[in-house]
Amino acid sequence: MSIGFIGLGNLGTAIATRLKQMDEEIIAYNRTKEKALDKGFNVVDTPKDLLKSCDVIFICLFDSPAVNNVFNMQDGLLCNELKGKIIIDLSTHHYEDVLNFHALCEKAEAKYLENPVFGSVAPALAGVLTLVSSGKKEVFDEVKPLLEKFGKEIFFLEKQGSATKMKLINNLCLGSFMATIAECTSLAEDCSIPKDKALDILGVGGGTSLVLNAKKQKLIDEDFSAHFSNNAINKDLHLLQDLAYSMKKPLYSAAMPKELFSKMKMMGKGEEDFSSIYRLFKGE
């Protein structure tokens, strides 16, 4: 049976493409139908149309309001036909909103797996994403073979909301590392050290990280076409601060990267890859 896929942004397109390469038949819904057709996917007109031929539907959207919309829009997923279907939600949510999606699907007698993605376009295409799932264990076990087609490291945290919280925590590391690597690169150049040499040295020194490995070439080429955007990391760091506020906990190291990425958004660079924060330190 076909797999439904909602949301063909950068990451969604990479995951859906990987699934196609692994011999899965994909039927997609995208807000802009023409873009999905141009990418070579079979496309339906509404989310509800996916329920006619798909028992499993992936959602990969920017935020909780976007996911809420595909459930509740006219001819959205929230209908009688949702009963018995499996929703695998790859989106990064507000820690409270994701609980509402669990409850909504349970009331509709559907199965919902909260499954945020750690990684971006290149690892998605290679099938080596890290995935963290929360929901009912039997649902996770049922779809795990499908997750393994695009994920390499797959973790299960049963308590609802845990996967979303872990994703936000992870993205504190991600944003902090990226900002530090970018500032170090700019500072090295100001010291007349060639950028590529500086990145080589950081890569075997204090900068050693998956972030540097993933973004090194982008920094060298100054190719900031988005794999993971400034808008996305900015949103996630705001959500993380909401979480910390609700727990009455300070987040000492989160404030600065959040404000740096907020500045990138204010400068009109929100759609660029988050490695373009390098431009901020270069004074561009």
TrEMBL record:
PANTHER family on file: CYTOKINE-LIKE NUCLEAR FACTOR N-PAC (PTHR43580:SF2), OXIDOREDUCTASE GLYR1-RELATED (PTHR43580)
Annotated InterPro entries: 6-PGluconate_DH-like_C_sf, 6PGD_dom2, 6PGDH_NADP-bd, HIBADH-like_NADP-bd, HIBADH-related, HIBADH-related_NP60_sf, NAD(P)-bd_dom_sf
Keyword annotations of the record: NAD, Oxidoreductase
High-level lineage: Bacteria, Pseudomonadati, Campylobacterota, Epsilonproteobacteria, Campylobacterales
Any one Gene Ontology molecular-function term assigned to this protein's record: oxidoreductase activity
Signal sequence bounds: none
Descriptive protein name: 6-phosphogluconate dehydrogenase
Record-linked Pfam families: NAD_binding_11, NAD_binding_2
SUPFAM superfamilies with a match to the protein in the record: 6-phosphogluconate dehydrogenase C-terminal domain-like, NAD(P)-binding Rossmann-fold domains
Organism: Poseidonibacter parvus
Annotated 3-hydroxyisobutyrate dehydrogenase-like NAD-binding domain residues: 161-280
Entry annotation: catalytic residues: 167
Domain 6-phosphogluconate dehydrogenase NADP-binding per the UniProt entry, residue ranges: 2-155
